[in-house]
Amino acid sequence: MPDNWGFVLAAYGLAAVVLIAYWRFLSRREKELEDATAIRHDLRQGSSSHPRSEPASERPSL
Amino acid sequence: MRRLFGGVTLVGLLTGLVMGFGIAPREATQGNVQRIMYLHVPSVWVAYLAFGVVLVASIAYLVRRAESADRLAHASAEVGVLFTGLTIATGSIWGKPTWGTWWTWDARLTSVSILFVMYLGYLLLRGMIDDRERGARFAAVLGIVAAFNIPLVHFSVYWWRTLHQPPSLMKPGPGTMPGIIVAALLANFAAFTLLYVYFVTRRARLLRLEAEAEA
User: Fold this and answer.
1) pTM over 0.90
2) Which of A3, A10, A33 is nearest residue B209 as measured by Cβ atoms?
3) Mean pLDDT score, B137-154
4) Phi and psi (nearest 5°) for B90?
């Protein structure tokens, strides 16, 4: 029987493409979420270290 | 730690490739196209493992309502679908030169397609329900029901007359394959199992981060 290397290459190539694509999806999504978490963390820290000023519209000064 | 485990997994996969292409001999009947076996069979093993984990994690979720169990089931189902798809695709590529056809509705191919569609449905179900707790509960029930298809897939080659050959490894009785081919196959089983663990732990962590971001 002929060796059919083309079929072997197709099977392994397809598997490599699919697995690398999934790995890249995981890495990219992880980075996005970690960045978002870091930004939220920074915002929270920022708001706790700088207390909000009194709202200007609370009572108009006469 | 994660990078280290990723590195170990990569080394495992490379070892599997060396075993499959460098150490294992050319098969006498099929020729080199038989080397697709070192990819196809470990893929279906990972699919069985993944869906088995979905079953256990789904039961654990229904009993204890632990979100970590739900995340594990979700991650494992996704990776299982990925590897079932690979099993079907590589089997089809292997089938063309050996059987003369890309596809036939024989019992093994049909049952594994049903398995693929059921777990694809499981993932779609999770995405369709907005209420997280309700979605997790429904998915857990489906994760348990769908697992009944796993023995059907595995034993289909015994229960019906099929074009697909019976299992060479996961079967009762003495093995018929040469030791070196078994060794290459086992090396790839180990590498794919590592890859499964690597993917599932990363995906489960992502699901946790997503839940925290939404909270």
Assistant:
1) no
2) A33
3) 93
4) -70, -35
